[in-house]
Design brief:
membrane, extended, transport, about 190 residues, mainly alpha, MetI-like, cell membrane, Carbohydrate ABC transporter permease
């Protein structure tokens, strides 16, 4: 049994904890941040008169996935030895030649990784495409699945055939670029 003084003390502690919890700033979730981004972007695209066009979708997706691209590429470039630049400069190579002949071939694994990630993300992007391109005649290939689905029934044989055709382009991109990704993973795994 808790005494009256002990009960008062527990109430004081509970009140302090509740006050502290209420005073903590609430962190916005990723979804809240995203939704605060999409509305101004759509308004901007509408004011530029490219809201229902492919160029509007391309510009929006470019802006959306550019941070990921910069993050991956800058992380990979930081791992390249600075001595490569210096050796090329000592040999008399210009900056353009050094980048084209020395640095760019070493960037292939990171470029392949970025290409695969961004391609898959953009290909599977449903909501942004729906928001920006509302005309069903301009929908992208992944939206074609909805031509075979209605409230009265679903033509499953057509849905699965269409899913196979929708999946094929991204699978081909992955098959061509997978060796670069494996090369990049192996390059960073062994020192020396």
């Amino acid at each position: 049994m808790v005494s009256e003084a002990g009960e008062v003390k527990l109430k004081e502690i509970a009140t302090k904890i509740t006050t502290i919890e209420k005073a903590k700033p609430k962190k916005a979730t990723t979804k809240a941040k995203y939704h605060s981004l999409i509305i101004p972007s759509i308004k901007l695209l509408k004011s530029l008169h490219i809201s229902g066009e492919f160029i509007g979708l391309i510009l929006f997706l470019t802006a959306l996935y550019l941070p990921l691209t910069i993050f991956i590429m800058s992380g990979f470039v930081r791992t390249l030895p600075r001595e490569l630049d210096e050796a090329a400069t000592i040999d008399g190579a210009s900056g353009f030649y050094t980048f084209n002949r020395v640095i760019f071939p070493l960037l292939k694994p990171s470029i392949a990784t970025v290409t695969i990630f961004v391609s898959i993300y953009a290909w599977n992007d449903f909501a942004n495409t729906l928001y920006i391109i509302s005309d069903s005649n301009k929908w992208t290939l992944p939206f074609s699945v909805y031509n075979f689905v209605s409230q009265y029934g679903t033509e499953w044989q057509f849905v699965f055939a269409d899913l196979l055709s929708v999946m094929l382009p991204i699978l081909i991109v992955y098959l061509f670029l997978q060796r670069y990704i494996i090369e990049g993973m192996m390059a960073g795994s062994v020192k020396g």
